[in-house]
Write a structure and sequence with these properties.
There is one protein chain. This protein has 343 residues and is of the alpha/beta class. The chain is 32% helix and 23% strand. The chain is built from ten helices and 17 strands. It has a nine-stranded mixed β-sheet with strand order 2-1-10-9-11-12-13-14-15, sandwiched between helices. Strand 12, helix 10 and strand 13 form a beta-alpha-beta unit. Helix 1 packs parallel to helix 7 and helix 8 packs across helix 9. The longest helix has 17 residues. It is globular, with a radius of gyration of 20 Å.
Length: 343
């Protein structure tokens, strides 16, 4: 079973429950029930298949932030293709280079004058066996790293790997149908152990009209948000809000994307009365650690490894660091489920 199959099952169990709530800039909300979400991405999948997109094909997605991105991404996965998200601010030259590097079989554009699907014949293989090794991995998602090792690498996730990764992450996050998650991060960079997890577990994803504090907090209060998933930058912005808006239903405020400074956590807690839980998300690995136990007393920590992961330090000779502690350093090694299928 793939994550898309699981979302289909969720829709059968709770067809009228809202999957996505998107605030519109011109006022009002767009509410999409689970049954409607599945109908939308199944329609998209049929269109892509009819246009020649085949199982395992690498399909780029260029879409603006919002519900249409999610619907299109699920359509690509439902068609059996490998989703390759592309930031929507990419320029034409960078897009051409990206297409060549990833050997895209197709590109789906959503919104704008160039909206539609383009099929690219004979894009070339990403392995030495005419893509046979690649397709044997059951590819589902391909995204490039941020380049922290000086060379950006394409990280490939498989369908089984995604399911295993979501299982492991949710042993810490405990996302369920009662949760309503405020989403402010870029979908082209954060999608698997977030949007896919929330929808698989039957939660409601809240998409603000903008990232301005008032816009986000109004939607969160209106929908009784239980989870906030944001970066330290967003947390600082929200903490500066001077309105009467609050987050009374919040059970979990998660910080990710960059290191959480103590002053950002303190400011958020002072404004909303909630400690910030820092999570260590790694595109190659998933969510191996989250600070569930010491969010109040040690907000800068990424916490302990989740149950399914082993994490240790090794020294320059490759041996485990003895007597690890706050003063010891080494290379971080991680072992667990849902690791990348290939670079």
């Amino acid at each position: 079973m793939t994550v898309v199959d699981a979302i289909r099952e969720r829709a059968r169990a709770q067809p009228q429950s809202a999957a996505l709530v998107e605030a519109r800039r011109d006022g009002g909300d767009r509410r999409l029930a689970y049954a409607e979400l599945v109908e939308s991405f199944e329609t998209r999948a049929r269109e892509l298949t009819a246009a020649g997109l085949a199982t395992g094909d690498r399909c780029g997605l260029l879409a603006p932030q919002g519900s249409e991105f999610i619907e299109a991404a699920l359509g690509i996965l439902a068609a059996g293709a490998c989703l390759v998200p592309i930031p929507d601010d990419i320029g034409p030259n960078a897009l051409a280079a990206f297409r060549q590097r990833t050997r895209l079989h197709g590109l789906l554009r959503v919104g704008g004058s160039e909206a539609g699907f383009s099929r690219f014949p004979d894009p070339g293989a990403v392995d030495g066996s005419d893509d046979r090794d690649y397709r044997d991995l059951r590819p589902a998602y391909l995204r490039f790293t941020s380049g922290t090792t000086s060379a950006r690498k394409g990280v490939l996730l498989s369908h089984p790997g995604i399911q295993a990764r979501l299982d492991a992450a949710n042993r810490g996050l405990a996302i369920g149908p009662e949760d309503r998650i405020v989403w402010v991060l870029p979908l082209a960079h954060h999608f698997v152990v977030s949007i896919l997890l929330y929808l698989r577990e039957g939660a409601r994803v809240l998409l603000p009209a903008s990232h301005l504090a008032r816009s986000v907090l109004e939607l969160a209060e209106r929908e009784a948000a239980t989870v906030l998933y944001a970066s330290p930058y967003h947390l600082r912005v929200f903490a500066k809000d001077t309105s009467e808006l609050s987050l009374p239903s919040l059970r979990l405020a998660i910080s990710t994307a960059s290191g959480l400074a103590e002053d950002a956590a303190t400011a958020f807690r002072a404004r909303f009365g909630h400690a910030v839980t820092q999570a260590l998300g790694i595109i190659e690995v998933g969510l191996p650690a989250i600070n569930l136990a010491r969010a109040e007393s040690k907000p800068e920590s990424v916490g302990a490894p989740l149950p399914d992961y082993d994490v240790w330090l090794r020294d320059e000779e490759g041996a485990p660091v003895r007597d690890p502690g706050p003063e010891r350093t080494g290379e971080v090694c991680i072992r667990g489920p849902g690791l990348l299928a290939a670079y």
